[in-house]
Amino acid sequence: MIREVVLDFETASFVDLTESGAARYSEDASTEILCLNFQVNRTGPIYSWRPTYQDEDYRETVAHRILADLVVDPDVIFIAHSAGFEKAIWRNIMVPVYGFAPIPGRRWHDTMAVAAMKAMPLDLDLLSRVLGLDVTKDMEGSSFTKKLSRPNRRGELDRSKPSLERVYDYCSVDIRSQTAVHARLGWLPPMERDIWLLDQRINERGVRLDLGYIRAAKSVVDRASEPLGHEFHRITGIPKFTQVQKLREWCAAEGVIVPDLQKETLARILNVDIDGDLEDDDDPFSYRPTLPDHVRRALYIRQLVGSASIKKLDRMQSCVSLDGRARGLLQYHGAGPGRWTGRLLQPQNFPRGTLKVDGEAPDPELLVNAIMTGDPDVVEMLFGPPVEAVVSGLRHTIVADQGRVLLSGDYAGIQARVVLALAGQWDKLGLMAAGADVYIDMACEIFKMERPVGKEAISRWKHEHMRERQSGKNSVLGLGFQMGWWKFQLKYAQAEAEAFCRRVVETYRKEWAPEVPKLWAALERAAVETVWTGRPHEAYGLEYRLEDGWLTATTPSGSKIWYYNPKPTRKAMPWSTEEEPDIRAAWTYQVKKQGRWITVDAYGGLLTENYVMRIETDIMAEAMFRLEREGMPLVLTVHDEALTEPLIARADEAMMKQVMADSRLARQLKIPLQIDTWAGDRYKK
DNA sequence: GTACTCTGCGCC
DNA sequence: AAACGGCGCAGAGTAC
Predict the structure, then answer these.
(1) In a shared domain, residues A164 and A215
(2) A522 is a domain residue
(3) What would the pLDDT profile of A215-237 be if each residue is shown by its tens digit?
(4) Chain A, 487-506: which CBs lie within 7 Å of strand B?
């Protein structure tokens, strides 16, 4: 019979767990176990295993004998909340220090993974509260235990007997929470369990970081920003250029109103063309007359060195394992519809490089070699502003191991392809499948222009009508999920008039992809019907049903999207008035947003986006299994991109394309896939 | 001090 | 006639 063991370590260390992650934490020499609490089959007694006792050898205790037996029994499954932590402590301390047998990956279960799959909060306290589980938390005991796990003010770990006794007293509380959560949430279904097991292999494999390069990059940044920081302080009186509000207030006092300090805003104000397609180039001098030189200089410094991304360098140093690989960078199902999210150094939001050498991104090795000198002057001479150069080279910190290469593949424009395929907009998909530039197609539709024919004409058009193409691209990518003209203007076209934005949105909905709004409406209707009647409803291959406190949407691949606590509501439409009210049936659900558990309105565009993201993730996960089988072990996934680290002999871009293209689900849904690949020693975009 | 929220900013 | 995409992290600011 399968037995379940819920377990929870309390530990102490000089290493900061949130800063460094479980892998680095567990292998640090200062990390020690205070106790391990565990409970068998939900109702049994809670045992506490400890490495030290008053009078007896820990090996002689009942807890130890029971635990040792459980570990070697292949029918026992170990359950933890955020199991990556318990697994790491087990692997790096329990086995080597206390002589327990290793526990293979297949014998672990993670209650956090189930919470993630069902779109619930991951944090155990909030999760218990939201689920209404009646576990009273001993707040004092909890904060005391937390305090004891870190060095005190004098820089020591407190090991006094009364303190430890207090921790032991408190410990069973988390076990009760975990057991209750497990009883409520249950197991992962087989398909999801396979994905989670894959996730664990990827997280434990980690990704190699070039520590020498990281050190050099930090040196470049430090040496370049120091004089600039002083100058900034002199000009503005603000000690740090990270103080956004103060800087804005200072600018205002100097007579310059700055709406925000975002990259693009700053570029516009300073009139620096960052991407070669500055949106507001009608009047390039609009800001100049009102911008005093010292304000310009202060903002310029902020632009030069204000990038927050370089903090990734510090994070890399603190979370890299002793063997030079960073682990635990991905959270399984971190986003509602199944996507992985990034952790620690957040490998999913590396800035895209802005450096250009002869109009192209520089060769990673050349850039790295320059930065390796640690000398900002060398970098400046070869590539331009040193901090910008380091930011552009941040991705290159990720490298392949000896004898291996990085091999990356990404699904080009997959979001647009999936939404068009689900909606049945086959004409546009046909264009995409034939390799046409649909952004140009949409632009021609918006601006009523003649479509260019022939390779040369297209290339010329692209060059001559860059702005029109950008509008086309934004529309194709952004308007598939019911974005209105207001948001479109805010996000992509602040320089354009309302009428223009209205026309773009109208063109997308009425002319370019008229099937897509039908998809929004159908999903909305099916979901509302399900929530209001309690009976399942299907639309466009997606089946909504109520399931034990959630509304689920089952996709054609059998995967599900979960919405917690769906409630029927009535909602006034935006155009509803007193005289002509338009109140319709709708529904809400609950979700964690910006750390808070809130109620949100469901609407067709959102349901469509969730559906599309789920399908994308399914296609990606499917491909990841095949890549692993073909000798291309995954190290990262960035939503539509798979980064693998095969042996040099197995690194074959054509093979990768083929493996990623070979998707049962894409065939079933008639989604034409296009895969772009590259191989190299360093990560890049 | 610690916990939390808000803003900014990076990605898909 | 038509709306609110998904994330994580750093730092500042605020509340206790």
Answers:
(1) no
(2) no
(3) 999 999 989 888 888 888 888 88
(4) none
